[in-house]
Every structure is written in C-alpha cells, then in structure tokens.
Amino acid sequence: MSEDALSALLVREHRELDALFGAYLAALGSPGAAERLADFDRRFRSHAEVEETRAFAPLASAGSLSPAAESALRLEHVQIRELCSISASRYGAGRPEEARALAGNLARRIASHQEREESLLCPLLDSGLGPEPAALLRAKISTG
Ligand SMILES: [Fe+2]
Ligand SMILES: [Fe+2]
Fold first, then answer.
1. Structural domain boundaries of the chain?
2. N vs C: which end of the chain shows fewer Cβ within 10 Å?
3. Distance between Cα 88 and ligand 1 center (Å)
4. What is the C-alpha separation between 124 and 110, in angstroms, rounded?
C-alpha cells in the first residue's frame, strides 16, 4: 500500500488553511467574521506547532535546514499568530473595521510563508528526515 509523501500531506494542510482563511475573508464585514478568524487561528497554531516540533527541529538537528532558514520560518509563524491575535482583540473591542484593515496583510504573510515552506521545506521532508522523525511527523500531520 502506498502512502502519500509527507510533502503532499503538508501541502494538503496548507490548502485546508487557505480554505479556512478564505472563509474568514468571505465573512469580513459580517457578524461571523471573528468566529471564522478563530477557526483559522486555532488550526494555524496547531499546524505551526507540528511543523516546529516535528519538521523544523529534526531537520535542523540533521543539518538539512539551516539555522537562518529555521529562524525565518519560526519568525513568520510568530508574525502570523500576532496578526491573528491583534485582529481578534480588535473584534473583542468592538472595532471590526480595524481587524478588516489587517486582513490583506495577514493574507500576504500566510501566502508567502506557505510558498517558502512548499519550495524549501517540502523537498527536505521527503528526503532529509530519518524514518523515525518521518513517522512521528506523519502521525501528527495525518491526525491533525
Ligand atoms: Fe509554517
Ligand atoms: Fe505550513
């Protein structure tokens, strides 16, 4: 039985995140926007945590991912989480127009982060992880 490559699983998660963020964009200006943002934020946080612990860390230990690349990817996670938090706090403060003003910035950061991961990280996932870290990542990424 053939298994999907880890890179394919990661890309699939990215498209799921895109769909959640798309639902948020579609809800901008409506009462459900804060909830859609929370859906994306929850999923993004769990995705980023799996990446950091089960992909970046073992790839960096194996010398496949450079320290500079690892820091850049981690920093992008921080920036995306921060923009989500700021947006959520604007909704909480009853100022949805301020959250809406941040949505384009957030969309661009998510897209460029995913592009970087798909070009830099995906090839490493399929060739640079040993069998044990690969199995640990697969277990997490497959169950969400
Ligand atoms: Fe990421
Ligand atoms: Fe990712």
1. 6-143
2. N
3. 20
4. 20
**CB within 5 A of ion ligand 2: which residues?**
117
Distance from the alpha carbon of residue 126 to the mean position of ligand 1, in angstroms:
16
Encode pLDDT of 33-81 as tens digits: 999 999 999 999 999 999 999 999 999 999 999 999 999 999 999 999 9
DSSP-derived secondary structure letter, 112? H
Fold of 6-143: Four Helix Bundle (Hemerythrin (Met), subunit A) (1.20.120)
Distance 15 CA to ligand 1 centre (A): 12
Taking only the tens place, the pLDDT of each residue in 83-101 is 999 999 999 999 999 999 9
Q: What is the mean pLDDT of residues 107-112?
A: 98
Q: What's the longest Cα–Cα distance across the chain?
A: 52
